């Protein structure tokens, strides 16, 4: 009902091409929180009427000490009207609440139109990982609510926007960290970090093992060469040894 009334009001004001000088705003608020609607004001305010649809929400005119509040602003002090600025504060927002407001100032047709939408904060997202060889697909999952958005960070820098899925390729250093960001206009949450080294665990371990094995082989070979050279240097010269040394001369060269 409120929606139809709001649309009719907008259409009546917008006959022709454009609503010259008029503004239409979408305002988001957190459930149980508050928002402030700020109308367009071009002159001192002598009277102001805020409406929700076609029904009055709050009203004030010169001579009144306090504004009058109506059904949408009750029960309790749910609204606060500042008659000097024209701002209307709406508190205690309710789940799934969507309200339409207009502001009429100094008896003139409404110049400001607002759609107020109350949203729950988003949940902390989780990341599902699917890997094959040197590629992984990361899929972000959060509690689905309206007006939500997914994006991705790599080492704290935004790399993808408005997508639930990220495709990653194995890098040489395996030093990257991926994070999913789940947000709506009133809140933001991040997933636990996904480390590249955990996506491709065999890569770094294999390189370490290969490096250790290569180092061991090199050390063993070096020790053998040093040992043979030392033996050749210290043992006494005999005809038999001289003949043996001549046969090895083409294989090992010792500097001493």
UniProtKB/TrEMBL annotation:
Residues 1-21 form the signal peptide. The chain crosses the membrane at residues 208-230. The keyword Signal applies. It is found in: Membrane. One of its GO terms (cellular component) is membrane. InterPro entries: CD2/SLAM_rcpt, Ig-like_dom_sf, Ig-like_fold. The keyword Lyase does not apply. Gene3D superfamilies: Immunoglobulins. Keywords: Glycoprotein, Membrane, Signal, Transmembrane, Transmembrane helix. PANTHER family: CD48 ANTIGEN-LIKE, SIGNALING LYMPHOCYTIC ACTIVATION MOLECULE. This is T-cell surface antigen CD2-like. The lineage of its organism: Eukaryota, Metazoa, Chordata, Craniata, Vertebrata.
């Amino acid at each position: 009902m409120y929606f139809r009334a709001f649309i009719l009001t907008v259409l009546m004001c917008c006959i022709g091409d454009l609503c010259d000088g008029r503004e239409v705003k979408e305002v988001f608020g957190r459930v149980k929180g508050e928002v402030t609607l700020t109308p367009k004001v071009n002159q001192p305010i002598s009277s102001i009427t805020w409406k929700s649809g076609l029904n009055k929400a709050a009203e004030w005119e010169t001579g009144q000490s306090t504004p009058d509040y109506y059904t949408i602003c009750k029960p309790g002090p749910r609204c606060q009207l500042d008659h000097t600025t024209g701002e209307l504060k709406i508190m205690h927002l309710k789940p799934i609440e969507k309200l339409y407001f207009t502001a009429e100032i100094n008896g003139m047709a409404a110049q400001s139109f607002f759609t107020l939408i109350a949203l729950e904060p988003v949940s902390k997202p989780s990341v599902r990982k699917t890997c094959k060889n040197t590629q992984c697909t990361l899929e972000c999952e959060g509690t689905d609510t309206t007006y939500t958005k997914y994006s991705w960070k790599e080492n704290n820098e935004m790399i993808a926007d408005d997508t639930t899925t990220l495709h990653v390729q194995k890098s040489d250093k395996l030093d990257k960290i991926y994070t999913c960001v789940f947000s709506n206009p009133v809140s933001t949450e991040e997933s636990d970090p996904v480390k590249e080294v955990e996506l491709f665990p065999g890569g770094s371990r294999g390189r370490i093992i290969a490096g250790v094995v290569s180092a061991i082989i090199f050390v063993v070979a070096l020790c053998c060469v040093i040992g043979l050279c030392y033996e050749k240097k210290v043992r006494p010269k005999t005809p038999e040894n001289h003949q043996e040394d001549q046969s090895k001369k083409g294989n090992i060269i010792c500097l001493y």
